[in-house]
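Propose amino acids for all 51 sites.
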Protein backbone atom coordinates (compact mmCIF):
# COMPACT_ATOMS: atom_id res chain seq x y z
CA UNK A 1 0.00 0.00 0.00
CA UNK A 2 2.78 2.40 0.90
CA UNK A 3 4.55 1.66 -2.38
CA UNK A 4 1.42 2.57 -4.33
CA UNK A 5 1.11 5.88 -2.48
CA UNK A 6 4.76 6.72 -3.11
CA UNK A 7 4.40 5.84 -6.81
CA UNK A 8 1.39 8.10 -7.08
CA UNK A 9 3.14 10.95 -5.30
CA UNK A 10 6.14 10.66 -7.64
CA UNK A 11 3.94 10.56 -10.73
CA UNK A 12 3.97 13.68 -12.97
CA UNK A 13 0.93 15.95 -12.75
CA UNK A 14 -0.12 15.27 -16.35
CA UNK A 15 -0.20 11.52 -15.78
CA UNK A 16 -2.34 12.00 -12.67
CA UNK A 17 -4.83 14.01 -14.73
CA UNK A 18 -4.96 11.27 -17.39
CA UNK A 19 -5.66 8.61 -14.77
CA UNK A 20 -8.38 10.76 -13.26
CA UNK A 21 -10.02 11.29 -16.68
CA UNK A 22 -9.92 7.56 -17.40
CA UNK A 23 -11.65 6.80 -14.11
CA UNK A 24 -14.37 9.36 -14.79
CA UNK A 25 -14.93 7.94 -18.29
CA UNK A 26 -15.32 4.43 -16.91
CA UNK A 27 -17.96 5.56 -14.44
CA UNK A 28 -20.30 6.77 -17.19
CA UNK A 29 -20.27 3.33 -18.82
CA UNK A 30 -22.02 1.72 -15.88
CA UNK A 31 -24.45 4.48 -14.98
CA UNK A 32 -27.49 2.19 -14.64
CA UNK A 33 -25.67 0.01 -12.13
CA UNK A 34 -24.39 3.02 -10.31
CA UNK A 35 -27.80 4.60 -9.88
CA UNK A 36 -30.07 1.59 -9.55
CA UNK A 37 -27.85 -1.16 -8.20
CA UNK A 38 -27.77 -4.78 -9.20
CA UNK A 39 -31.38 -5.10 -10.39
CA UNK A 40 -30.88 -3.60 -13.91
CA UNK A 41 -27.78 -5.72 -14.37
CA UNK A 42 -29.65 -8.89 -13.39
CA UNK A 43 -32.52 -8.07 -15.76
CA UNK A 44 -30.08 -7.41 -18.57
CA UNK A 45 -28.45 -10.82 -18.00
CA UNK A 46 -31.83 -12.57 -18.00
CA UNK A 47 -32.84 -10.93 -21.26
CA UNK A 48 -29.53 -11.82 -22.91
CA UNK A 49 -29.76 -15.38 -21.64
CA UNK A 50 -33.20 -15.88 -23.20
CA UNK A 51 -31.98 -14.76 -26.62
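Proposal:
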Amino acid sequence: MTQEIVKYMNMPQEEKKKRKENRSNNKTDNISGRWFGLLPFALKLLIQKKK
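The radius of gyration is 17 Å. DSSP finds four helices and no strands in the chain.
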